[in-house]
Amino acid sequence: MIYLDNAATTWPKPPEIQQSMIEALNLGGNAGRGGHSASVQAQRLLHQVREDLCEFLGADDPTQVIFTHNATHALNQALFGLLQPGDHVITSSLEHNAVTRPLKVLADQGVEVTEILVVPEQEFPWAEYEQAFRKNTKLVVTIHASNVTGTLLPIERIGRIARRHGAFYLLDASQTAGVFPLDLGHVPLDLLAFPGHKGLLGPQGTGGLILKPYVKLKPLLYGGTGSLSESDEQPDFLPDALESGTLNGAGIAGLGAGLRYLKAQGLDKIRYQEQTLCRRLTQGLLEIPELTLYGGTDASAKAPIVSFNIGDLDSTFVAFTLEQTAGIVARAGLHCAPHAHRTLGTMEQGVVRFSPSHFTTEEEIDRTIDAVKMVARDLA
Ligand SMILES: Cc1ncc(COP(=O)(O)O)c(C=O)c1O
Question: What's this model's pTM, rounded to 2 decimal places?
Answer without folding.
Answer: 0.98
